[in-house]
Write a structure and sequence with these properties.
The protein is 43% helix and 0% strand. The protein is mostly helical and 65 residues long.
Amino acid sequence: MAAATRTALILAALALAGCGVKGPPEPPPGGIQATEAAEAAKRGEKVDTSVPLRPDKKLWIDKLL
């Protein structure tokens, strides 16, 4: 009985793990990309926020990756 309950709980957890928002993540509400998109929306333009902005500075660890 314990094995069947455990299996049912694991299957339920896996099923719920597949639920959620599909598509790219939204930018943080106070971030640069969100404020630029809000300003562009006021002007009637559309900005692609599906790709996050890249930082201008390189980190020292980037050479290792």
